[in-house]
Design a protein that fits this description.
Elements: H1 4-19, E1 23-25, E2 42-47, H2 52-55, H3 58-64, E3 74-79, H4 89-103, E4 110-112, H5 128-141, E5 146-150, H6 159-173, E6 184-188, H7 193-196, H8 199-216, E7 237-239, H9 242-253, H10 261-269, E8 275-280
Parallel strand pairs: 2-3, 2-5, 3-4, 5-6
Antiparallel strand pairs: 1-7, 6-8, 7-8
Helix pairs in contact: 4-9, 5-6
């Protein structure tokens, strides 16, 4: 019989080897589907507060902005507030820029606004009409064809997060907008609390699952998937490796004013430090 330590020393290196590389599935954010276009997409990431970009969206940003890519999309960021709930707005503006430096978003592609009706407040839903107007302005200015943001649950349930997709859907569903092309909207999938804090275990499991699928083929997916319709395999998914996770930690460390104990626990255990799953919103 193998001892427990023998099993541990066999499985642990295998676990690290699985975790180490990054992985992406169904990456629809690189090229136009029309083959006549030979340039990457123009993507706008819309967030609510400084630090959202690193706590929730880093796996996607790091994958899309990987300098090794032959063809990278042009990625813009738009933050709809300066995070002034505690009177630290000006400080947080600088922290946001430092974080975006780490994540690789170009300086001239960063947008940050401070609108009187879009203030950081954990008890307030933002007006979707104002969000619609702001996003339309930058989408037109930067010729955006793909918008990324929170879903209706906002990952953390923050009402400011939850307001953003409502405003963008109102914009893209309106007969009055003349945006051309009409951007596609993808929202970050909020996962249940029971799996939200599974961190690196979730990343390793997702990589193992997709690796097994590549070996055995999709007709035998039932052998490794809880359901043959497992959405992880069909959604755009970005899974960080160890290098990307460490870069995300570095980005988070730039938000020094926000490094309280519960955010440190979040960074240690949250699935969003490792995995981003996206879902297109039909309009």
């Amino acid at each position: 019989m193998f001892s427990r330590w023998t099993i541990f020393w066999f499985l642990f290196p295998s676990f690290l080897a699985l975790l180490y590389p990054s992985l992406e599935l169904n990456n629809v954010f690189l090229r136009y589907p029309d083959s006549q276009h030979d340039t990457g997409r123009r993507i706008l990431l819309v967030t609510a507060h400084p630090d959202d970009e690193s706590y929730f969206f880093a796996p996607t940003l790091l994958a899309l902005l990987d300098h090794k890519r032959e063809l990278r999309p042009t990625v813009y960021s738009l933050c709809l507030s300066i995070g002034d709930a505690d009177g630290l707005g000006e400080l947080r503006v600088g922290e946001l820029n430092d974080s975006l430096d780490v994540l690789g978003v170009d300086t001239d592609k960063r947008r940050l606004i401070s609108h009187p009706e879009l203030q950081d407040n954990i008890t307030v839903e933002w007006d979707p009409r104002i969000i619609s107007n702001v996003v339309e302005h930058y989408a037109r200015q930067d010729r955006i064809d793909t918008i990324l943001t929170f879903d209706r649950n906002g990952v953390s349930g923050h009402p400011n997060h939850r307001s953003i997709p409502s405003g963008i859907i109102q914009l893209l569903s309106s007969n009055s907008t003349d945006l051309q092309p009409l951007p596609r909207l993808y929202t970050l999938v909020s996962v249940p609390l029971t799996v939200k804090f599974t961190g690196l275990l979730a990343a390793a499991y997702a990589k193992l699952k997709t690796s097994l699928l590549e070996v055995i083929g999709h007709p035998f997916a039932f052998l490794v998937l809880p359901s043959p319709h497992d959405k992880l395999i069909h959604r755009p998914v970005f899974i960080s490796g160890v290098k990307e996770f460490l870069t995300t930690l570095s980005a988070i460390r730039q938000h020094k004013s926000q490094l309280v104990w519960f955010r440190l626990l979040y960074a240690a255990f949250s699935q969003y430090m490792w995995i981003n799953q996206w879902e297109e919103v039909p309009l």
